[in-house]
Automatic annotation (TrEMBL):
<dbReference type="InterPro" id="IPR000515">
    <property type="entry name" value="MetI-like"/>
</dbReference>
<keyword id="KW-1003">Cell membrane</keyword>
<keyword id="KW-0812">Transmembrane</keyword>
<feature type="transmembrane region" description="Helical">
    <location>
        <begin position="32"/>
        <end position="58"/>
    </location>
</feature>
<keyword id="KW-1133">Transmembrane helix</keyword>
<keyword id="KW-0813">Transport</keyword>
<dbReference type="GO" id="GO:0005886">
    <property type="term" value="C:plasma membrane"/>
</dbReference>
<keyword id="KW-0472">Membrane</keyword>
<dbReference type="GO" id="GO:0055085">
    <property type="term" value="P:transmembrane transport"/>
</dbReference>
<protein>
    <submittedName>
        <fullName>Unannotated protein</fullName>
    </submittedName>
</protein>
<feature type="domain" description="ABC transmembrane type-1">
    <location>
        <begin position="2"/>
        <end position="63"/>
    </location>
</feature>
<dbReference type="Pfam" id="PF00528">
    <property type="entry name" value="BPD_transp_1"/>
</dbReference>
């Protein structure tokens, strides 16, 4: 996920977490890399939770009885 972010940010010249993490990796700034990874993981977990809740709301076949 961060790799794709780095590519998109470099193509469109956008500042973002991918480039920030890449620069921190090059400088050996471990706390920044860990922070970016933890933030990315939390966002993915939250999005998955929201998608699962919406799926259960829209699709009656997956509802818990």
């Amino acid at each position: 996920m961060l790799g794709g972010s780095v590519i998109i940010e470099s193509i469109f010249a956008l500042p973002g977490l991918g480039q920030y993490a890449g620069d921190a990796t090059g400088k050996g700034d471990t706390p920044v890399v860990m922070g970016v990874v933890v933030f990315t993981v939390l966002v993915v977990i939250f999005v998955n939770l929201v998608v699962d809740l919406i799926n259960g709301w829209l699709n009656p076949k997956v509802r818990v009885k």
